[in-house]
Design goal:
With about 160 residues, this protein is an alpha+beta fold. Helix content is about 45%, strand content about 15%. Helix 2 crosses helix 5. The longest helix is centred in the first third of the chain and has 24 residues. The radius of gyration is 22 Å and the shape is globular. About 5% of the residues have low confidence. InterPro entries: GlcG_carb_metab_protein, PduO/GlcC-like, PduO/GlcC-like_sf.
């Protein structure tokens, strides 16, 4: 009787373990840029733009394209807040620099441009941890998108090690 009870307990534990493993298979585990890394990226980008004489807004999005950090320099133009978000969102959505949208050919681009928060303006960059997209950064306010992108790249370079890059 004890052997039967022991065998039944072992079978029940194995079945329970199997059910637990199946339940775990129903979960998704995703990595995202941390708030600390987003702040460091934004701060470094702001320092670079200030050193170059530009007043900018930096928007950093997390893994779900939600705003993690927004930093607007003193005296920055108000349109830069929306523009930096659009640049970051475009980079996140396309998994490529926002300027790449302007290089796409018609007619495919026309429909995509109807989506909210999409832009062809340079200054948005995706954030990768290895090959995994974990966020995006967009900067607006420098006199030219290439200058915004350079500031964003400085921030990305600063946090690359913490992302495993």
């Amino acid at each position: 009787m004890n052997k039967t009870r022991t065998a039944f307990l072992i079978a029940a534990m194995l079945a329970g373990g199997s059910a637990m493993a199946q339940g775990a298979a129903g979960l998704v585990s995703e990595r995202s840029i941390s708030t600390n890394a987003a702040l460091e990226l934004a701060t470094t980008s702001l320092e670079r733009c200030r050193a170059d004489g530009y007043k900018v807004t930096i928007t950093v999005l997390n893994r779900h394209a939600r705003t993690a950090v927004v930093v607007s320099d003193d005296g920055v133009n108000p349109h830069t807040i929306e523009n930096s978000l659009r640049k970051a969102y475009t980079a996140f959505t396309t998994r490529s620099p926002s300027a790449d949208m302007g290089k796409r050919t018609q007619p495919g681009l026309a429909g995509f441009m109807q989506l909210d928060k999409i832009t062809t303006i340079e200054g948005g960059l995706p954030i990768f941890a290895g090959k995994e997209l974990v966020g995006a950064v967009g900067i607006s306010g420098a006199p030219g998108g290439e200058k915004d992108a350079a500031c964003a790249q400085a921030g990305l370079d600063r946090i690359a090690r913490s992302l495993g890059g």
